[in-house]
């Protein structure tokens, strides 16, 4: 019986700390942690004992240099769903962040450091009573010169959002964002002003590079199928058929990445593990033919956003 997919690499990283074994899975990631290739990868993700059936899997991400970037556990070995404590590192080996996850969401105390090893912040992530209502308590914060600006939940805080190249500053009262916060995103070329009451965003306004003003009440709006994710999954399931002549000879998982463009179109569809039977090309056409998507937004600005889709063959 042929196995469709097996990306197992045997090598020792240049730092010489570990060897990948036959039960592990290694995946190339690009600079944005999307599925990449040997030509463009900046990180490697390793899921330990991938081919065993387990409730949780140890997962690690390494810089291209071989230095550790993250260690955690996941309840899903294909699309990471972090559970428990995760620790992140700078490439020089110093700790960057310690976060606790429940069902892939940061919950509880979170500590962060600067690259020189000095403490940066202590915050606490609280679960809200509904999706999107999570609250972050800001407890302590120091700048890069080790000057403390938030003391026991009171002061001025600087927040960085690495995924969006954004930085914002504002007041903290009773551990929560309060009043007017001002920031910018170099990636999307916007300046923004936001108003918070008791840690909750009340209103926001972005100004783009052309001077256009956009009002919003959510910082992130993810693109979703207009008829729901389940409708999209059903479309894949109903449309994808393995030809009878190979139906009992292949098994495994195809891994796809694609982007929902800011104009609502699907683009940049690629497959990590192209198969010899043409099944990946069939799946790409099926994904591309699904048109009904609502676009994503960052602070009111339409943005491209990537998706990761495994298709398991049975």
UniProtKB/TrEMBL annotation:
The keyword Cell membrane does not apply. This is Energy transducer TonB. Keywords: Signal. Residues 1-20 form the signal peptide. It holds the Pfam family MORN_2. It comes from Flavobacterium ammoniigenes. InterPro entries: MORN_2.
